[in-house]
Amino acid sequence: MSERDAYIQKAKAQLDQWNAEIDKLEARAREASADGELAYRETLHDLRGKRDALEQRIEDTHKSGEAAWSDMRAGMDAAWKNLSEALEKAQSRFG
User: Fold this and answer.
1) Which residues form a coiled coil (predicted)?
2) For residues 4 and 69, is the Cβ–Cβ distance under 8 A?
3) pTM of the predicted model, to two decimals?
4) Distance CA 62, CA 60 (A)
């Protein structure tokens, strides 16, 4: 397995974990008061946008050749960090 394939596999596994965390936040949003639910919904919208951007990067990286891998990795790392930080912030805010 190439480094690129291993990275993509790791990213997909982490994305699955983050999707589960987003689902937990969504469940909490349904139980929150009206004001709390709005805050959850805004946060969930932001998280889903970041998740979708990372999913697209993963897909683009998967389709790319080995030569483009090093160029694409920086963008994928940035998207990964962006989603990770946003999820941590949401969990601490609503946890």
Assistant:
1) 8-64
2) yes
3) 0.79
4) 5
Range of the domain at 8: 3-94
Q: Any idea what the CATH number is for the domain that residue 47 is in? A: 1.20.1270
User: Looking up tokens 């709005």, which residue turns up?
Assistant: 38
CA separation for the pair 16, 76 (Å, rounded): 16
- Structural domains of the chain, count: 1
pLDDT, tens only, 58-70: 888 888 877 777 7
**In the chain, how long is the greatest CA-to-CA distance?**
51
CA 56 – CA 51 distance, rounded (Å): 9
64: DSSP letter: S
Residue with tokens 């709390």: 36
Grouping H, G, I as helix, E, B as strand and the rest as coil, residue 42 is helix
